[in-house]
Amino acid sequence: MNALITISVLAVLVLYLGLYKANKALLPVTLLGLAVALFFTINHWNVFTGPTFNDMMSYDNFAVAFSGITITSTMLILLLSKGYFEKISDHVAEYYSIILFSLAGILVMVSYHNMTMLFIGIEIMSVSLYILAGIRKQDFASNEAALKYFLMGAFSTGFLLFGVALIYGAAHSFDLEAIKMHLETNLQTGQAISPLFYTGVVLMAVGMAFKVGAAPFHFWTPDVYEGSPSLITAFMSTVVKTAGFAAFLRLFATCFYPLHDFWMPVILVITIITLFAGNITALYQNNFKRMLAWSSISHAGYMLFAIVSLGSEASYGVFVYAIAYSAASIIAFAGLVLMQANTGSDSFDSFNGLGRKNPFLAFTLTVAMLSLAGIPLTAGFIGKFIMFSNALSSMHTWLVVLAVINAVISIFYYFRVIVAMYFKDAERAELEIPLNFKVVLAISVVATILIGIWPAFLPNVI
Amino acid sequence: MNLLSVLVFSPLVAGLIVLVLPASLQSRYKYVALAATILQVLLSVLVWVRFNPSLGGVNNEHTLQFAEKLSWIQLNVGGDSRLQIDYFLAIDGLSMPFLLLTSLVMFVAVLSSWEITTNLKGYFALFMLLDTAVMGVFTAMDFFLFYLFYELMLLPIYFLIGMWGGVKREYAAIKFFLYTLFGSVFMLLIMVGLYFSVQDPLTGDHTFNMVHMMNPANYVDGSLFAKFSGQLLLGIPARSLAFIVLFVAFAIKVPIVPLHTWLPDAHVEAPTPVSIVLAGILLKVGGYGVIRICYSIFPEAALGYAWWIGLIGVVSIIYGALNALAQRDLKRLVAYSSVSHMGFVLLGIASVTAEGISGAMMQMISHGFLSVMLFFLVGVIYTRVHDREIANFRGLSQLMPQYTFFIMVAFFASLGLPGFSAFIAEAFSLTGAFKSAGVNGLIPRWMALGGSVGILLSAAYLLWTLQRMFFGQLRLSGGEPWRLLLTDVTIREKIALVPLAAMALLLGILPGVVFTQINTSVLDLVKLVNP
Amino acid sequence: MAVFYLVAFLSIFFSLLVIFSKNPVHSVIYLIITFFTFTIHYVLLNAQFLAIVNFIVYMGAIMVLFLYVLMLLDLNVNSEPVKSSLMKIAGIVAGMCLLVTLAGALKGSGFLPAGAHEEVVQRPNLGLVKNLGQVLFHDFLLPFEVSSLLLLSAMVGAVLLAKREPREI
Lengths: 462, 531, 169
Description:
Chain A is mostly helical.
């Protein structure tokens, strides 16, 4: 709770800083505040005693872990933002504070214990993102992204809310534990569970699938990701996605678990469609940013594995996968931002010859691509490994075989970047990499490789 | 620090040194790499000397030698499952010869890297990484660790071909990468399946330990891969499926017909040192994997599919040889001859007789030296005139007598002239194949006959090439400039070639040097597969 | 129950009209009627507070939206419709208010057989403002407070998006 309060107060503080034109202090203050929030979050580790605030929130290790990832990723992304928003607008403080509001919503999303909190968390996050997607007011793509995201987001929220309402109608509670109890007692005593409940579960699954960008509810993703400013896209595809999955998993793993047999096939189908839709479309992209957007859809598919096969390792799998994916994506987007700032282009060809001119950047991007592709000794491999072994242990052989085929397909498009950087020569100037980018790239690469070699250093969730 | 760990990670250290050294010392990188490989050769000789040939190893953890076992990844993943992955290095007779082979081949490969001129830092760093990975594959006894090293081999090769290769390098690199990766991702699935089926008898945790996987008693009752559980996977018995998947994964590396098409492309586009490593070591990883993993973990499936494996071996022998006959590019010819020669390995393994498996082991080692020699020799011509069309050269013996001597040694050794290692190897493989029909009835006699035809064909293409390129009137398509460029072998090249030729000869005359070292392990393996 | 079915039918009927009418002005009018029917539902469910909030907020909001659409689409071209549609709205609002009052009165008089819903009959205090306040400011205090973040964020964002950027012009 302290973290949530810190971030909320921080957002208001940043607004005041903007009011008094203290633009230089914005980034340091924000980072400092986030560090404090991170400290408060980690302090909660292993001290969980039960849900708090009238059972509204539950700060268990799951919540702490995911709050930790999201806050850290946000810090890394904000570190990249030095000088970025200034180019877009004069009102820099507002951007920071909106990002912080969004993060506050995310913290609610990962630690809710009541459906109202889930809904409010998602809304705080989404409303902030609608604005962030459209902050390039003069840019048509950005406007389109904001509008599309808003309409689709509102639509999915409708589904979600309808689902919540139906479940309330059936179970007479918003509380996750109470709903689970309702299911369990009904299943034990052989009482029929109201059809309202089933409908509600499906509607909530649809709403969550919308939010995490899983097919067939993914159509907004590429346009929104491409149209938004790159840093905001980085935020959306890492922090927001992680939070979405944390919320998704929490809902289905703790609350709807007794109905696993009912909703599992639904999620299974969604997973398979997501994998293929994301991977195959990503193959045909010529634009790095759009490729990342589609690849993020396919990664949503891999993360859905955890929900399909809710084994004991599900939370841990999503946790590791989210870290791996976030670290690699942050590197990729950092590279993208640099490339756009220097050459104004984000096609694959603009990466030609980067290996010679910017060996460090090329190396980090290579590690990121390898990690996204799931090559061993990177964090991405460990993530996929846990997901696959988890699914195999619950005998989803076909699913894993399909996923493996997809992993091979993904090699093609991730390696296009590597091929461009190393195998293709082009006359190009050396990119200038500011110090803050170097720091972020180094941190992310070290994390990626460290987890790949020695995953045991990550704490165990659950 | 265990000897094997030093052997595995010393190249990595050298690679890091190369990375740290400033660019002004660029011309010194190769010496760092050379020093590392010389150290490695010395270490592997030490291993060879200290190796105790009376201990079998294979499926008995206590008779594995130089073992080093550390707990590496231990994750409490909730509930009763605990992810247990060990850092477990050890060798037995089946892997020990490969250590010496690898270190020698790497030494030669570094010597032939003198021709590389661009981006030396990246080149040598990747090369040393590759060295570490290969050594790791041959020593790892934990399946997970094995898999990591196995995959780790891919990336350096991919970059080495893609960045320093020929015109179509991009295509060749990704083709190589995808072929191998496609095999290995499915291997990953089987590996995970095995993990869930096998328990460490001491701790009761699931384990990736290969030695435990070889013992049927360690399988959880009713688990996916338990021997008598009769589980079906996608319609066929799970263990058979697992065997097929693993076999295909390794057979792509060997390579077998029809999964060999990456090999000629990769060889043609790769720079000479990479060709050397590919032919000399990576193909052996495939054979080694078949013996170490497919046969040892799924023996009954191996027996069941012996006929098919033998057939694939014979087809590879004959198809590779016929293709080699038709090649116009010298390097492609050598590449196809590799396909043909590696067919003997499969044939020998399929027979599951002591002779056959010893022959297969011998063939891998012998082919390791000989193919390296051949690719090195092709590289010698190629660096001088950047051409290797057979038709463009004629009567080279007059221009390069010493070179011709080496190539004759290599060719005659390859075609199985008595006195050279390939003769012993092929003779033993074929003996095993012949004997098999009488002993265990696994493969019919006509397959052994087919293999013999392959020897005949290899004599045909090698001698024909020798005649076309080296004898007769001197005629070069490049004319006078080529004449000046085509100087005879230099001292550096001799340093690389002489040990290889010597090894081929030594193993041909005194095959016992290898056979005594591997014999106990081979017998144990035969007993394990066909009790 | 008959009242419920009637109102439910009206709700669905007018919702469909909202979607299918080509003229946006008509759409908005149907939307207002739909909201009126919702208000009646709330009254039947004994949810006083919701009924009033729905009445005030949605009516207010929708009126503003309606005017906005009028301005945006510039329907002034034919001067006639403006007056008539305003009249229409006034008529509809008045008529619907009457309907809501009637429904409430019917309910109060016990005319509705067996109440609108079992639950309502069993717990007559359900949905009263007092109870709602107690729940909202006790059990659901946290969501109530946290939603201020949502409003603040939306407000900041709205200002940000609406504000003119001095540089870019």
